[in-house]
Amino acid sequence: MDDEQTINAQQNGKVQLEYLPCINYAMIHNHIPVCIFCEIINTDNSDWNLVKVIIEGELIKRSEVVIDIIPAGQRLQIKSLEITPQTNKLIEFTEGIETDFHLLLAIDGNIAFEQKYPISLMAFDQWTGSGILPELLAAFVTPNHPILSRIRINTSGFLESWTGDSALDEYQTQDPNRVRKQVAAIYEALRSESLVYCSPPASFEKHGQRVRLADKVLTEKLGTCLDLTLLFASCLEANGIHPLLVLLKGHIFVGAWLTPDGYSQMISDDASFLLKGSADGINDLVLVETTALTSSQNVPFEEAVHRAENELKEDNKFELFIDVFRCRLNNIRPLPQRINNNGSWEIVNTGIKHENATKEVNQLNRFEIKIDDTQKKITKQTIWERKLLDFSLRNNLINIRLGRRVIPFISFDIDHLEDHLQAGENYQILSSPTTKKIEPKESGMYDSSLLKDRLKNLVVNGLQNKKIHSYLTETELQNALKFIYRTSRTSLEENGANSLFLVLGIMKWFETERSVKPRFAPILLLPIDIIRSRGTAGYTIRTRDEDIILNITLVELLKQQYDINLSNLNQLPTDESGVDVKRIFATIRTCIRNMKRWDVIEESLLGLFSFNKFVMWNDIHSNADKLKKNPVIASLMENRIQWTDTVPKAEARLIDKQMAPSNFSIPVDVDSSQLEAVIESGEGKSFILHGPPGTGKSQTITNMIANALYKGKRVLFVAEKMAALSVVQNRLAKIGLDPFCLEMHSNKATKSHFLEQMQKAIEVTHIQSPAEYKNLSKRLFDHRKKLIEYMEVLHSPQTYGYSLYECITNYLSIPGDELLLGQSLPDFLNKEKLDKIREELISLDIVFQITGHPQDHPLKGLMPKDVSSESIRKLQQSLTDYRNVFKQIMEDRRLFERDLSLAVPDTFEGLVWMKEVCDILLKLPVLNKTIIEIAGNKELTQEWKEHIASGRKRDEIKSELLKDFTPEILDENVYMLQQKWNAVEAMWFLPKFFAKRSYIKKIRFYNASLQENQIQGFLNKLATYHKQNKIVCERSLELADTFAFLGRKDKEKWDDILDTLNLAPKLYQMLLNHAQMNKISFTNTLSGFILQIGNDWDLFRHAFGQNLSRLSDFIKKHTDIQNSLRELCETDIPDTNIETTVPPLLARWSNHFDLIKNWYQWCIRKKELEIQNLSAVINYIEGKHKTGAEASSALFKGVSHLMAIKTVDANKSLQMFNGLLFEEMINKYKTLASDFQELSKKELYCRLAARMPSLTMEVASNSEMGILKRNISNGGRGTSIRRIIDQIPTLLSKLCPCMLMSPISVAQYIDLDKDKFDLVIFDEASQMPTCEAVGAIARGNSLVVVGDPKQMPPTNFFSSSQVDDEEAEFDDMESILDDCISLSMPSRYLTWHYRSKHESLIAFSNSQYYEGKLHTFPSVDDRISKIKLIYVDGIYDKGYTRCNREEADAIVKEIIRRLQDPELSGKSIGVISFSQVQQNLIEDLLLEEMSKYPELEQKAFQCHEPIFIKNLENVQGDERDVILFSIGYGPDKNGNVSMNFGPLNNQGGERRLNVAVSRARYEMIIFSTLHPEQIDLKRSKAKGVEGLKKFLDFAERGTTLISTMQTKRIPTNDLVNLIAQELENRGYTVNTFVGRSNFKVDLAIINPRNKDQYLLGILCDGKNYYETKTTRDREIVQPGVLNMLHWNIIRIWSIDWFENKEQVLDRITEKLETLQQENSSMRPAVSTNTYKSFSIADEPVLELVNKREKEYIFADLPVIKKKTDIDLIISSPALVKKQLRKIISVEQPVTNTLLYKRILQIWNIPRITSRLQTIVDSQLTNVYKDPLSNETKTYWIDKKAAQNYTSYRINSNRDIQDIPIIEVMNATLYVIEQQFSMPLEDLKKVTSQVLGFSRKGANMDAIMEEAIRILIKKKLLYNNNGIISSKQSSN
């Protein structure tokens, strides 16, 4: 009870007491609190202190709680108060009584509140009822009463009789059947107690019911259903079995756990839990109707169980069940025994005796079901299938609704039905066996178990006889069967997927716990064929050759929405006949055990089961292995690329340069980004094509399709939306491809629509291929290459690293001096080095800040190499030494000049000369005038040197002789000695002997040891001595006079004399040089010098030698110091006037030596410049006192000029370049490009038409062509689209090589086993889920995914996820586009935006979502914005209509205004709202307003582009000239702004905004109540909301944040700035680089008359020109778009500007003046995205002829009229040979059999004999025999004639054996070309008719088969299961 009272004393407050209305002993015994809480509320302004709360009463114990303080305004809840009766009194009560208790509240000792409360005290055996703590009923289960032992003994007896085992072993055996037998034994033991059913005991209380406890029931033998149930439960618990108490409305029975288990809670109101637990296969529970204990009808245990189950199934009867075991665990104990102290008594009744009814306890099946927590391996295929499932209640796979799509069966033993069907048996379906129609239960489903007693035997017997009984009447059944038969057949034909299943088992489930209506879902689906039989059999069913499946939709529903995982059934359990149905049901029941009211109903039915995307689901589910073979799908499954990309990446620049236009087909205008995509798709590359808004996606797709078809490929174009598909289809139609494209979107795919398209393809007009196509392609290519050549020469870096353009702009843009390096560039100079040099030069200015300018520095001329401490010390010391030595040298120089009368030059060279003179003078042994004169005469010097050589020779020989001989030998007459020796040698032997002895003896006087053999050598040496001595002696006097003491006779010092002769000429030469150097007379110099040295050399040396030596030493020291300085530094010391210049220089260096380190900064840089041969730069800096920056600019300018001149001179085309002539070449290129584009359409049409059948022969009925034409003629009667497509696979690929379909139509009509498409293209891929795309992907070899990840996601993007967290790694991205992006699949980007005719319209999207990567084009009025924000004074009706009426009114008013304005009405209008309700409001208001202006309706809704009104969710793909926005959201009536902006708040909301804001072509107007500052981003982190704020701010201000891509630095030295400066000098206002994207108009001159517009735009050939990839982009696309945007454009060419700037300026000025004189308003726009529609109306029709068929030409040979014989032929071999050659040359190919006949005719011979054949064969040796010849040989005149023969001949009257096999083959090919494919026998028949044979005999058949065999071997034909076609089947 809950009662709140007010305190009405001095204190203000409230008291609330909540308590139970009654108390029984069971509550007290189990400590159940009666007082739930007492709440006290202090509403005073002051605290309450010392608060006491007291409960007391007459029979209630006192309970008191004291609280120190209850603060003012606070509330306190007390839970420790007790309402406890006096236990002894309560035990004594035999009847309940009503009493009360008091609640007192005292504050500070004063009673502030007192109240009396009623309460009931119940009798000991009284239960409170199910309304108050129903679990207390478990306390009345008393298992420990001694009286129960009797029951246990009897129970044991029954067990003994049934099982032979009397043990009461509860759960010990772990066998549920053993436990069940114990329950049954207890049942029989209790029946043996003779109990009688009676009403409840008398009771006079308000609450609960009186209970007879177990002992009382057993003694009194009376009991209610409650008493009996508690008794049964007590017995069960006494035996260790866990009981359940099942309460129904007005009834109760018992249950028991057969396993040692329990429920998770004490009570539950889920009846399905009991039904599932007691179901066959689970059998965890058994339920027993306890009133059967009192029945006299001998109800057996199994019947009591059956009754309990049936009662539980009755609708709206069950209340709850109590798990006694769980209650015990929660401390609800049994009531104790009550004992009377005055003694005990008992009442003994005999009762009514009951017979033992249970003879046998059923052995039930129980499956050990273990919940498998292991997850099934999740694959991408699993995810895809799951996402295609439909969880809406319209799907009968989760919500069966009885109707004509379903036939329910009366179901018993449905597991046996499955066994028989799986065994291949057929079953007949019968109507209901009852006369009265059986209606389903209130829930809407039948429950056959309720009919078990009535119908089970009948139905089971029927199953055994192959008959199934339904619940339907005969009429209902026949109608349902007919409908199901027809519908299932149609579905199979149309979709290729079976939808007819036999359902085995139905799950009953509820959407939520509060749901009232149950839902029913099939569990097992057995694929079924239904057969209509003749006669009485009616319809029968049988299984298809497909596996039984678990309802995957149900499985996923359970997993995703209820977290129920049926992973145990990933592999269905099987038995000996099929799947184990019972085990499956048991498993499911186990998994849903805890789902309240859920259950498995064992029913079966036949029905049609599918859903919207069933075809796609089935396509994936049935083709798992085939899907994996596709590399793209395999990659999606593995999350990584699974193929090797062998197709090179297309580069538009290379394509433009290297590929002729005829290499591909581009019938629609294309830019470079589109071109690359088109080329790669044509080469078979798989990639993503990113297509932001307005970038020409459909245009690109059109070109991709056209190019693929041009290359002979098949294309599948897939789009989810019909609108996207229609755009491409219309573009294809405009270029003439309509007949070759089959549109089969699911929205339009009707049989008549399909056949109409096929008829159009068959009847396509054949036209003549354009002969000029190749030639025009070559001319266009040549022009393109010339334009590319100029661009490349201008911009390609030259060998030095700079392009010509860079050189020109660098030269022209650099002010100031030009530093010339000469007429040619240094070889070492290139861009890298020049940049480095320039940087170094600029950095010099920092150095100069440290050192000062080098020209003024005191250390100028001193350049140290190192500034280490040691080096500085050495350098300083060296400078000091240098000063000292130099001073001494200068002093000694003056002495030198005085002493030698020689003037020494005042240079360092003079010092060197002076030292050399000193050194020579010091080295000379002697010097005099004669020697000096000799030194001046080379001949004389040489004579003396020869004389010296003779003297030295003489002295050498003399020395050798005196080693062995005495000196006297030298005086001997050598001549005489030689004569005498010669005479001795001439004597004869004996005189000779004695004469030698005498001669030797005489010589031995000078050398005693001389031997005979030494005589001749001695004589020769002595002779030489005398000769040389004579020479010396002849000039001995002269020698002495000249060289003084050195030349004394016989004391000559030859070495000194030679030294003198060597040194004297050097001295002489030095004196000569001195005279020349000083420009004085050499004679005077020489005479003066001779005079100074005098005649006495020794005297001279004595007098001046010391000075000379000192001077030489000082000069040497000077040199050493100089060398030392060179190691330490470089010096710049003057070489002239050194005596006056050097000392002060050295002094300045020394005095400022402390600056050396800073000075070194310049020195090292100067040295680096010198090393680089840039002394001119040093001279420029030092000589002209220039800074480093000035030097850098001057150098760069000079080099750039020189480079530019060099480049122009090296190229003849540049030498002759003229801008006007070049523009004429561009115009010619444009004309050729336009002509070729139109010709491409014609060429493509001709190529495709040429592949069509010419229909030059009658169509064979069984050929593909015949099948198609038959279906066209009869409207496809009796067949389906898919059936037709399957029958014409070869023909279809020829007729319609391009197919345009939706994903579902692909799965529906295209067999995955058929030939793959070469290319699959997806459009709007961001809106296509991957699961819907994979089927189409699998049907292609390569894939192009077109879409924009920044635009709309799939429509179900914001629905709940179908993948849990554990499976997230396997999940797809939101679309196929995002999945492919995540794969890192190659990507292409369309970057040129064409839709927006004003750049401001796309600027926000480009900046906000595309990082500025879109190339957008500025308008001529780009200075103003075309986005207008109009604030509306309105309110957002939040919480009610959720719309904004004021905004809607404003938009409608604007629409009417525009429609009424003649000028504005020409612009189409689109309205975009942010919500569906706002859209609806605008639509309603507009229609209401339009009704007032009927004349405007035509303009609004019946024009080319009618007004659309859409919201963010459905506007993608639409565009209009003017877009009107209704924000809708804003302040409500209270001025509050909610941060909820509908879909913008959700993830991906910014993508919807991006779509919406990029729909306008010319203008965008935003109507908004909301201001950007009212959007508080602190309250919302959604990107969509942030984007809205930025968009409104952009619309208001006209500016937006720019992206990093848009901050690209504009070069300051560009030619553009130079031109701008010159034009500004002429008085014009010029803006440069106009545009908000990376594309800029280089210069724009503002219109003087209208400052918001530009008068002229100038495009240069600068970086933007070069970076534009293709010639078409440069010369057609960019200028064309600018023209469309009203620009007047002129081009400026760099070379023109370089060579004649003034002439170019005059041209610009002239153009501007002309434009100003003309009307200055914007000229009409020129559309660039329109193109001519291709038409064949004016084309000559090509006559269709059979090019293979030829007339037979006979050779004209004279015939011999009289009869001849073979001998005459034999005698005329030459003539026969000539005749044969003539026949072969005319009639070739010709067979030998025909040649026999022709010779026979010519020679008039009666018959062919073997001799004739031999003669003919012998004369065929010199002709060519066809290699295809077999027994019948085929001959040609030569091998060349046999090549490429494709004809067959008619009208020849030849036998089939006489026709060459090659002709039969060609005729066969012709038939297949016309018929495409046909059965083998039909092909042979038709081919024979083509060859002129009306009948087909054995010979004919054999030859035809041979021809076909050869064609198949050559792979010209293929045999596909007896069908001959020109291509191989994929099967």
Summarize this entry quickly.
The chain is of the alpha/beta class. The chain has 68 helices and 52 strands.
In words, what does this structure look like?
By secondary structure, the chain is an alpha/beta fold. The protein starts with a strand and ends in a 6-residue tail after the last strand. The strands form 13 sheets. Strands 19, 20, 21, 22, 23, 24, 25 and 26 form an 8-stranded mixed β-sheet that branches. It has 68 helices and 52 strands. The model is unreliable at 343-350, 1357-1370, 1600-1611 and 1724-1730 (pLDDT under 50). The longest helix is centred in the middle third of the chain and has 32 residues, at 869-900. Helix 24 (773-795) runs antiparallel to helix 43 (1219-1250).
